[in-house]
Write a structure and sequence with these properties.
By secondary structure, this protein is of the alpha+beta class. The protein is built from 10 helices and 14 strands. β7 and β8 form a beta hairpin. α2 packs across α4, α2 runs antiparallel to α7 and α5 crosses α6. It starts with a helix and ends with a helix.
Amino acid sequence: MSLLLILALLGPVASEKKDCEVCRGLVEKFNEHLEKTARQNYGGGNTAWEEKSLGSYAKSETRLVEIIEKTCGKKDYKCGTLLENKEEFLEEWFFKKQESHPSLFSYLCVEDHPVCCEKNRWGKDCAECPGGVDTPCSGVGTCRGEGDREGAGTCNCDKGYNGTTCEGCKKMWLRVDDRCEECSKLCKGQCTGLGPSGCVKCIKGYEFRDETDKECVDIDECTREGCGDPLEECMNSAGSFECVCKKDYHRVGGKCVLEDLYADENEDSETSAEEETSAEVETSATVEPPVGEASDSETKDEL
């Protein structure tokens, strides 16, 4: 069996998780079951509350085993491998380090097994995201790969924003106070204000109302130009217009003609086509005798 066929039978293969994603997932599951084991034994709480309310169970081997058994899925190989390698580390944290290192994520994934960074930091040195850790990307974007030592650390700006830290506005967007607002759809190019009255130029089919009122309004082509054919009616629409045939008229070859006349012309053409077809059939029914053979009438004449 070929390799391609085997892959087809196995179906799509999920993309491999990054090291930080594996570590983060392990910690999330560990903390989830840490909380569940507390809730099922009196309702949960902080470490001090657990020690007081859960007694010896709070930091018992039994509780730790229950948590570890449910931390990684059976098919999650990378999580299982990390858990196996860090089992002694987790035991030490569980029994001795919870108070001094309350964040298992920071303690394991950032410090001991350095594959992740704290929030809004990225790269091998855990540098700050553009704009800083408190307001990355000016608060109007997200830092790509933040929290990951393999992250890109660039800003993915919200709609309408651009720049290294999302500090600018895109074309057809206007800075209003501390935010970017979109220009009117009636503007061609940039605008100086919001709405149709803030346009520098108008799109096709629109014009400024007058020299003093710089608001883009629809051009009524029907009033200004019309269609030029008395058998057509002009239908104006936003930014455009259309010429349609008047009632009882039909467009044929670009011109408006009466529907009855159009029907008569169709009937005449259909009749002519039928007559031509009939004539062709009659002609094809007359068969000439082969060369060298006489017809019956010619034979009789000779006799």
